[in-house]
Design brief:
alpha+beta, BirA Bifunctional Protein, domain 2, SH3 type barrels, 2 domains, seven-stranded mixed sheet, five-stranded antiparallel sheet, aa-tRNA-synth_II/BPL/LPL
Amino acid sequence: MGTDAGWVDRLDVDRIEEAASGCVIGRRVVVYQSTRSTNDIAWEYAKGAESDGLVVFAEEQSGGRGRRGNKWLSSAGQSLLCSVIVSGVSAGAELLTLASAVATAEAIREYAGVSARIKWPNDVMVGGKKICGILVESRAIAGRKVFVVGIGINCHQGEDFFGSEELRMPGTSVDLAMGEVCDRNELAGVLLRKLDVWVGKMQADEKAVIDGWGRLSSQLGEYVTVEHNNRRYSGICAGVDPVEGLILRLDGGAVRMFEAGQTTIVKHS
């Protein structure tokens, strides 16, 4: 799997829009060859009243950002990098993050045939290695609550990439997980259809999102250590609350919730 693999599947607006036909998410798609951040571009589009469901893709981004100031590392054509505009929903960013994680994990599972799982709050893992990160941002625009869901999926990176970069956790790619070169346009289509389904479910049935997260979680029922405000806590993961965050039954018997913005998973068994 060479470093040029990404350029055999250049992102194609027509193919992606056709795959998302009938969906709100993906009814309009734009592709940039290079940008600082797809989230930044999406926020510009979000100023328009008819922007709900628009998706910005990029072959390369120089300033892709992740949770808590982390950077998303990727060479041109190697990842599926996109940002989705979601507006007109009553749910908060926390529930949208969970719904987006479920949708993305399901998309990877369906397309690649691998057991993708969710590491709370916003990573998708395959075989204990990170394959995808999600960042949900929110703003008020002209009296509307608007979200931008940024998603980065490793696609064509080889073992040499993960061995040479300074990564926060072990990583993998769709190619490595499948054992063959993937088609990012096909994966993009599956991803947008799954996002459309799960954003719809989020608005109709909050419990369905929580149940979906529990089904795909890599932590539910596991012994977990988290870092919260520079202190560490350990216990059994009992679930997730869409507003309050991760629920742990601590070693001392108490039950506590840890909000995503101030909490990092240190390790789990």
